[in-house]
Amino acid sequence: MQDGPEHGARCQNNGASKFLPPPSVAGPPFPLAPSFATSDTSAHPILGNGFGSTVTYQSKDPRTLAAFPDGRYTAMSFEWGYLDHALDMGILGVAALVAFLAVLMFTGLRRGGDAAALALGLGALAIVHITSPYLNHPLGLGIMLWLFAYTAPHTSVEA
């Protein structure tokens, strides 16, 4: 049997503890999802609460606990990109954003060359945006605008 104090001491002494998360981040892997989904978006799930709305969540981070002993933290933005958009713009806004990204990526891949490379970069940012707000960052906005310029129909003006 491997349970008991001697097993824990053996695991810590053999270097396994360096692979375990520190106590400040230990806990459920997605602490925001249940409280966010039920409390903050239920007021306006279709159109959202508007830009600048706040979200309050429970934190176990020692830095947050030092400033807020009850662990409740209120912020205007947080690190989950699509949930942040859902709070601000609702389900319709997130659907419009995803559709816009899909059209940009599809058009860029069809066009090929530099546009395809930008489309792949935008696809990677769209995936990373799940856990980090890269599409809200100038990097993500810049790639979207650059790809939009590459894929926009070119027309010539004759005088």
Could you describe the 3D structure shown?
With 159 residues, the chain is mainly α. The chain has one domain. The protein contains six helices and two strands. It is elongated and about 65 Å long. The chain starts with a helix and ends in an 8-residue tail after the last helix. Residues 1-14, 23-30 and 32-38 have low confidence and may be disordered.
Q: What's the domain count?
A: 1
**Morphology:** elongated
Terminal residue distance: 87 Å
Low-pLDDT runs: 1-14, 23-30, 32-38
Summarize this, please?
With 159 residues, the protein is mainly α.
Give the arrangement of secondary structure elements.
Blueprint: H1 5-13, H2 32-40, E1 55-58, H3 62-67, E2 72-75, H4 81-111, H5 113-128, H6 138-151
Antiparallel strand pairs: 1-2
Helix pairs in contact: 4-5, 4-6, 5-6
Which features would summarize this protein structure in a list?
2 strands, single chain, 6 helices, 159 residues, mainly alpha, two-stranded antiparallel ribbon, disordered N terminus
